[in-house]
Amino acid sequence: MAKDTNEVVNSYITDMLALEDHIEKALRGQLEDLKDYPEVVSELTRIHGTVEHHITDLKELSERRSAGGPSNLVKRAGSAVLGLGAAAVDLVRKEGLPKNLRDDYTAFSLATIGYVMLHTTGLSLGEREVAALARQHFTDYAGVVTRLHNIVPAAVVRFLKEDGLPAQENVLPEVSRAIEEVWQSQSSQAPRTEATSIGRSR
Question: What is the pLDDT of residues 49-103, one digit of tens each?
Fold first, then answer.
């Protein structure tokens, strides 16, 4: 039985609203827990503002789409996060700065691919407004993940030094080069979306 287009699109919007809400609550807690790291808190504060903006955008989108009423959609979103699986990590764990940032990276990566899926769904089903919003949010998270590439190594070195280990800060430029080189090398080798056979009708 064919599914209803609106129902499918609204379910993706619900999933993303659930994930954004999960991330927002976790970041709010981290801003307090990591107050001894002002540089990190400054970056996370910016990210937290972005997440709050995303939540507002998604709620307004759901209102325009009359997705069962905004309050109903938000209620559904509250339970939908349970279906996101193990990837929706518990970001509230207090395991130290590097592992907090690692878990943030995991959640932001999940949001990134989630918006790729929503963008694809919107374009393929002729929902241009949905696709445009998803692309903007995807762009936001791509920038966040890229910035974390540079923040996490420095956080690891600092945390190791605080544990009394002889960690050397002078390796950080080498780490940055490695990250840049690896991502550039892999992006040139990855097949383009239209070159894959997964989306072709059988």
Answer: 999 999 999 999 988 887 544 455 555 544 545 445 444 445 545 567 888 899 8
Using CA atoms, how far apart are residues 112 and 142, in angstroms rounded to an integer?
A: 7
Rounded-to-integer distance, Cα 30 and Cα 177, Å: 29
CA atoms within 13 A on the CB side of 70: 10
Contact 107, 23 (CB under 8 A): yes
Evaluate whether 111 touches 58 at the Cβ level (below 8 Å): no
Distances (CA, A) of 17 to 57, 83, 156: 9, 13, 31
Q: What is the pTM of this model?
A: 0.84
The DSSP code sequence of 164-200 is T----GGGHHHHHHHHHHHHHHHHHHSPPGGG-STTS
DSSP-derived letter for residue 3 is: P
Query: How far, in Å, CA of 160 to CA of 93, rounded?
Result: 19
**Distance, C-alpha 27 to centroid of its chain:** 12
pLDDT digits (tens, 9 = 90+) for 17-40: 989 998 998 899 889 888 889 999
CATH of domain 5-149: 1.20.1260.10
